[in-house]
Amino acid sequence: MNLVQLEADITSIRSGSSITSINLPDYVEHTAGVSRVGALSAEAVVRDYESAAKEIEAMGTELIDAARKCEALTAQVHDAIAFMRETAAGYREEGRKIFQRIEECALFTEDVRKTCEQVKRRMAGVSFGPSSDEELAPQDPELTGIAAKVTMSEIR
To answer: Would you say the C-alpha torsion 90, 95, 98, 99 has a positive or negative sign?
Structure first.
């Protein structure tokens, strides 16, 4: 391998003739007295490392962006969970109301049934004679609707 020819080829490709003419990363500088081939080799290696470091930093930037998106998604998930909890609480409250209404209706129905049974017992305890409709008529309040059409003898 001809080092002189290699140096000539590199110099013809590179703009500028001195070693210090190429901008290097801030964390390195050429050592005085190093050969041109050594300096160029070191420069090529450090540029590869710098290029890789910049790609790693770019990945970090992408990772930060992904983390921001993840945080935004997490906030949306928290909002969705809060909405679901509110909805579930609303369903429970509605279920409680319906439960109470059904039980109130059941109690009311039971009261109506008991009242009807008491009225039937009271009616059964009353003795009616042959002219009982005529005797009781002036004492009863005036009936309307279907109650006015039913006679006491029909109830028995």
So the answer is: negative
The answer to whether residue 110 scores a pLDDT higher than 50 is yes
Residues 23, 29, 31: CA angle, nearest 5 degrees: 130
Torsion angles phi and psi, residue 50, rounded to 5: -65, -40
Does the structure show a pLDDT above 50 at 156?
no
CA-based nearest residue to 24, from 60, 59, 63, 50: 50
**Could you read off the pLDDT of 14-46 as tens digits, one per residue?**
555 454 445 788 889 889 999 988 988 898 899
Distances (CA, A) of 43 to 6, 14, 24, 37, 39: 15, 12, 7, 10, 6
d(CA 141, CA 86): 56
What sign has the CA pseudo-torsion 68, 73, 76, 81? negative
- Phi/psi at 36 (5° precision): -65, -40
Helix (H) or strand (E) holding 143: none
Residues constituting the chain: 156
Give the pLDDT score at 17: 47
Q: Hey, which bits of the chain come out as E strands? A: none
